[in-house]
Structure prediction request, 486 residues.
Amino acid sequence: MDGKAAPNGVATIEDRILRITGYYGYYPGYSSQKSASRSSVIQCKPGGNCPSRHRGMTRQLSPLSVAEDSAAPILELQNRSPSGICRHSRVERQSRSGEEGTQTHTESSSQEAEGQTRCQSCTSTVLKLIWRFLIILSVSSSWVGTTQFVKITYETFDCPFFMTWFSTNWNIMVFPIYYSGHLATAQEKQSPIKKFRECSRIFGEDGLTLKLFLKRTAPFSILWTLTNYLYLLALKKLTATDVSALFCCNKAFVFLLSWIVLKDRFMGARIVAAIMAITGIVMMAYADGFQGDSIIGVAYAVGSASTSALYKVLFKMFLGSANFGEAAHFVSTLGFFNLIFISVTPIILYFTKVEYWSPFSAVPWGYLCGVAGLWLAFNILVNVGVVLTYPILISIGTVLSVPGNAAVDLLKHKMIFSVVRLGATIIICIGFLLMLLPEEWDEITLRFINSLKEKKSEDHADDITDSSVHTRSRSRANGTVSIPLA
Prediction:
């Protein structure tokens, strides 16, 4: 329905609405031109005779037609069949349906490929988690088994230095085990001599010489023997749980020595952990009133942790970091040095009757082999785990030996833990876990907190936007949105 012309040149209500809404291609007289163009279309009835001049759709070339061409598709109705169906439209619909089918097939195939990739990534993640869990469990169980086997061996064989010497000799097998793994997994296999020379670069560019063998191996072999010997002496005086907890203090001693000797970065959290470790040591010694075997056992355990920390710091100072092959070569070298030079010590202790056994057949070789085998497995797992996983997992496996030994002492030996000892053990374990914090833990924590705040603010903004859009749509549905007229 056409209205009268308005003072501003708008002829109809339709023109006014189009002008207000800013319709693309609008100009005054739009509706009248549109009605004129519609009236120019002549349709043929099915079965009727159409004039030749109206065989197609006649359209006026005007600014209106240009505007309609830019706003909507043009349908050319040509070559009508007697039934009045447009062949061109039918072909166009078929082509569109074919394109839609191809697009749907492509989307479905891409979704399947994406699902397979996601499934593979999830599977690999699960396998990695299982592998890391097995490494932690193996490290913890091997250390618990070593400690408990020593306690059992003490019931029939009280010779801690001989046990230390016998177990250290098994370190000779570390490099052969490593080379067997190299032959099983490496694509380019090397001869044993070539691999031995390659791994001996840990001693320098010239490899292992007699001078370096004595100079570099002797101090580390002595520290290795002292660490294990003092640990076994502590097991004679204390329970396995107490000794394993006190040995965890070596992490705090490593930090203190590295800070003093190697000038490592100062960290407040690790200082707190070191203080907690010292507090746990004092509480452990106070558990029996600073008297009897308890204080001696605590001293042995702390001495073992101290020599272990000194070994690690000196290794880092003189030899630096080492891969699995170099570490296996070095540990086997320690075993050779122990066999050649330290074998005289248990002989002297035997003839001086400090560590004497009689008869020779009374030696529990089965338990000794169990201790040596578990100790060897622990050393191999530590070196393999550092290379294949993260060092923090090895540390977690070590600290988990404390509750493992506590469970064995409680269930098998019917051990009753005092409140002071239990508190000291918990404090030492917490300090050990604080030592595992990375150096940039404060920066990482701040970034994590800031990311959480940004994510919360983004979610809040999205919620506000969604609620405003929902409110606006409801208002439009209720007819409350007004369009201002110009």
Observations:
- The chain is about 70% helix and 0% strand.
- Residues 442 and 448 are 10 Å apart (CA to CA).
- The two ends are 21 Å apart (CA to CA).
- The chain has a mean pLDDT of 75.
